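Protocol step 4 of 6: structure prediction from sequence.
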Amino acid sequence: MKLRIERDALARSLSIVGPSVPVRPPVPTLGGVLLEAGDESVRLSGFDYEFAAQSSIPTTAVAEPGSALVSGRLLTEIVKLLPPHSVDFSVDGTNLNLACGQSRFALPLMPVMDYPPLPTLPDTTGVVDREAFSAAVAQVAVAAGRDDTLPFLTGISIEFHDKFIRLVATDRFRIAIRELDWTPIKPSTSTEPSSVLVPSRTLAAATKTMTGSQIEIGSAPGQQVLGLQSRNQHSIMRLLDSPFAPYERYLTHERTSTAVVDPAPFIEAIKRVSLLASRGSKILFSFSDDAVHLSAGSDGEGRGEETLACEFEGEPLTIAFSPRYLMDGLGAARATKVEIVMNGSIRAATLRSVDDSGDADQASGRRLYVLMPMRL
């Protein structure tokens, strides 16, 4: 194998396949990146049996086609520090040699035949806007659980409807929901939407590196994988083999109190007051008369208080929230105004983004964040 690649294009491709290369591989070959040079492109692959990623670099500078398997960590760290020039690759039998400017490196080769075959990319079932989908994944991922002993809580559920897809994540203390339009390749014949449960961290890593204007989503019954394809790259993720947590009963239209806040100063106030919360456990929020009063702490350990202006309607209310969970919801809204809908101090509250016209997202939920309060 002998070829030349521009350093920036190589670094970009390595950032795409990097998340699929395990930090502590169970076998050495899984810690490698597979390079395959054809006549007109070079393809990089990473795979850990749960997540596969491939990226192709179009190039006419392939002198000798071939393949090589080398340490993904070493190759990535080297390329990051190279100057922005062309990188020459060549194989001498035992090493992959790199040359860039005055820099020279030799990486030991691993046997290509020991690298496992990557799963097949599922046929495309629909197309979605890349920026909207990536933002939606980031918005709901904050609510996904981190406890691997409860795998169904660590995933993002993707529901495929006729004209939109719905992404949902929950860790039992909050629920994040995001809907966005999509274009299915074939209309569904089922009366119920199909759905898949994808590991949250894997989906977030895959969408973060996607480029292009659209993402092609592929899912097929029985394959137990989800495929994402965009421009010269694709990712394949193994699904979680578990039913998703039921969440619909927590979505309610009932309200006794409603506040509209500016999330930026609200988050800063929460950060300050939470310094006096015992181990960051909870903050009390008292809503009344177009203001919200934040308080935390005790007389023995110190107290923190702050009052902010807000738009408020309904019954005055004091409710307790985890400061971290509330800040997650406010930050994920990515809006200049957020509506907080409450139904008493012991029932779940709902956060909705408010658009420039002053209208909140409808209760069906283009963008919702449902948060359980804490005991007062």
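Step 5 (inspection) to follow. The CA atoms of residues 46 and 142 lie 26 Å apart.
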